[in-house]
Specification:
Layout: E1 5-8, E2 11-12, H1 18-29, E3 34-42, E4 47-54, H2 56-73, E5 89-98, H3 102-120, E6 124-128, H4 139-143, H5 150-154, E7 175-179, E8 184-190, H6 195-205, E9 210-211, E10 232-233, E11 240-247, E12 252-259, H7 267-280, E13 285-291, H8 296-309, H9 318-329, H10 339-342, H11 344-352, H12 362-370, H13 378-400, H14 410-445, H15 452-481, H16 484-493, H17 499-524, H18 530-562, H19 564-568
Parallel strand pairs: 5-7, 6-7
Antiparallel strand pairs: 1-4, 1-5, 2-4, 2-5, 3-4, 8-12, 8-13, 9-10, 11-12
Helix pairs in contact: 1-2, 2-3, 6-7, 8-9, 13-14, 13-15, 13-16, 13-17, 14-15, 15-17, 15-18, 16-17, 16-18, 17-18
Length: 571
Amino acid sequence: MVKKILECVPNFSEGRDMNIIRQITDVIEAVEGVSLLNVDPGRDTNRTVVTFAGTPDEVCEAAFLAVKKAAELIDMSKHRGAHPRMGATDVCPLVPVRGITMEETVVLARKLAERIGNELGIPVYCYENAAFEEKRRDLANCRAGEYEGLKKKLSDPAWKPDFGPAIFNPRSGATAVGARDFLIAFNVNLNTTSVRRANAIAYDIREKGRPMREGNSLTGKIVKDKEGNPLMIPGSLKHVKAIGWYIEEYGIAQVSMNLTNISETPLHIAFDEACRKAEARGVRVTGSELVGLIPLKAMLEAGRYYLEKQQRSSGVPDKELIKIAVRSLGLNDIRPFNPEEKIIEYILGRNERKKKLKDLSLEEYMNKTASESPAPGGGSASAYIGALGSALGTMVANLSGHKRGWDEKWKEFSDWACKGKEIQNRLLELVDEDTDAYNKIIEARSLPSETEALKQERDKNIQEAVKQAVMVPFKVMETAFSAFGLIREMVEKGLPGSVTDAGVGALALLACIKGAFLNIKINASGLRDEKFMKDILMRACDIESKAMMEEDAIIKLVNSRICPEKKQQGS
């Protein structure tokens, strides 16, 4: 079963006093099952974005304790800052990361909001997916009027809090608790100090846009509808909220954006659009700043986007894609951007598990394989060999895409390189899965068997573990076989000087498939499910036979290209 992981990204109205911030983060870290991932204070915004993740109940407990501590330490009556805010804990969104649905997250968010309201006496509005009514989905509506207008807002029946008293609490203000998808808080740096120009660019791009004015002038009267609401001219980007501000710490103005749906408006599209709108107003974008964390997917998509704009292959390692994204977006403009500290999957991986086999150096993996431990063994090594075979095909595709005179073929080779990278990454995951499957057999065999019931349960667990130990190498065979198309294509159409590299890739793939089949045979011998065993052995035998034919044909083709005289002689 996949472990449920929930993320929480509370924003606290304190960005200057690190002692206060530390006291808040201390209560978060004290909750077992929760990992503090990032703390991002801003002096001029006087606001700190904290990110933590873990199992759902523990995350909600940590969130409640953090809100409680912030209410004790932060006095909103004395707060000043550039960012819109209405409470000591201004917002507290929950974000599903893994193994948990948005529907489940909504239930958790509403329970958290109810607890904050009831136990702490803080007015709470539920927003985004946790909202009880449509007008409260938008955080900007919930926060309209900010802290200074909160007393009047609470007296309006239409804005009665979802939980907690409709009474103005001058010290803690109000809090918005939500359930949402990943939101990227992203600031674009400008070569100006003008807030007016920064706001103009923000209005150009944000979905809400700007109020319509009579005569389309900057100073004309705002046009309103029959209900008295201003008519808006939409901006160019969907799912983007933006404002302009001046950051004294940096000495520049920024366009501050919240990207609320990165599937429809990705990071790189928002950045490029900001560049275009700034240029149109005589302003240049000098770089950008990421507030909080970002999903790995967003960085990889940005890297691919900018490489493809250069007509370069995007089938390169993740580290290269991230490096291109960082440079293209100017994420090092204000301070160094460290992927290990800003990409959520990297931090979660570092915090929740020990080092994987695929993360070891080549020498470390070799030495671990050579040790007295039975794992990693032949199955794991087979997957590793297959990953190398696919990687050789990927290398040839990337090299071919750069060959002088082949410029019109770059996309074709890039697509092949991306396919090869996908295969090699999957095989790398199977390097660890094979060893994990072996360890589960050992764990099952160590279960107690003193009674007949315990013995039956132990035997059942052993059989399930053995089936898994059969299926993992079968997946290795299937995955490795899918790389033969890449290898054949590179031998036939790839860089002539690298044809033997592709040939070695074919040899490695066959070795991988044969090795994985040996693993299946020895593990299947312990199965009592004869139907399952016969079926998997038949399918594996078919893959091995086809792989032998593919490898033979490819090696003959390689030899014909490097020894053309043999081809002419018919040998």
